[in-house]
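Troubleshooting: if your tokenizer reports a length mismatch, compare your output against this known-good record of 143 residues.
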Amino acid sequence: MKPKHILGLLVVAAALAYLIFGGLGQNLVYFITPSEYFQQAERYQNRPVRLGGLVKAGSLYYNPQTLELRFVVTDGVKEIPVRSSGATPPALFGENRGVVVEGRFQDGTFVSQNLLVKHSESYQAPKEGWTPEQVRKLIEETQ
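Known-good structure output:
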């Protein structure tokens, strides 16, 4: 093979690698708990994130006419208010239940575009006093 052909192949390979892997970091969706968010809040600004935790008891507000949904996600240590609109929450969604919301942080509130609630036969409710790591493991096991 001629050197100019090899060089051409290397340029094409480098361009493909950049397109595939270069944009990958911008398209990743991180899974975090409220405690992890507060440890590195600036890292998660203006990027898609999946926030996992429990729906705090007494924080749930839903208006079926406007489809406005507000609640607080907690990992037992930290709490983050969540706002969602335009969709009816799933039947399994409720207080003291595990939830994963996908969206972005905006002005101290997590604005959700997608609400994920999944049921598993092996689901176990978190116990009072669990660490954020224990809550995170529980949420990941139920996904």
